[in-house]
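ESCALATION

Customer reports they have been waiting on this structure for their group meeting. Please prioritize. Original submission:
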Amino acid sequence: MNARTQIHNSLRDLVVLSIFGALMVISDQLMNFLPNVHLIAMFVILLTRFYRVKALIPIYIFVLLDGVLEGFFLSTWVMYSYIWLILWFAVMLLPKKLPKTAEAVIYPLLGAAHGLLFGILCSPASYFLFFPKTVWSFANYKKYILSGLPFDIVHMTGNFFACMLVFPLLSLMRKMYGKKRT
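Update from on-call: job pushed to the front of the queue and completed.
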């Protein structure tokens, strides 16, 4: 592959990844009326499986634009700056080659696990960000986590069904762009 082709492919990837970042923001805004139901985990898993490290580009475009739209200090921006990185890292740990049947099962389960753990993973930052004058104690912290459990269950369920789209979309992307990226 010559230098011109490499630049063309890199530029195309950057444009496509930027569009995916915008799609993540649009889908999140359109689904805001449903608490804790969104397509972000599906996008993170899909893009990480296909683009690997480059998937960080749309993830952080989403995080940055979410901060712009929702406010950097009064939103989930602080949590989003690390929570999607955890999912990206978990997907990166998966073997590059998985049997198709395993892919169809693993992606929804990984998305569901991330949805269930979302509240626990966000709670350290949100507890201190939203309750700075509260005296910290394990009992208060445990109550805080347990109070969010119903939302985490909704999140888990939504992620499970959304991540069922990963396998067919990943198969489509592999057919369209070739298997060389994964």
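Sent to customer with the following note: The helical segments are 3-30, 40-51, 56-70, 77-92, 100-130, 138-147, 149-162, 166-177.
Escalation resolved.
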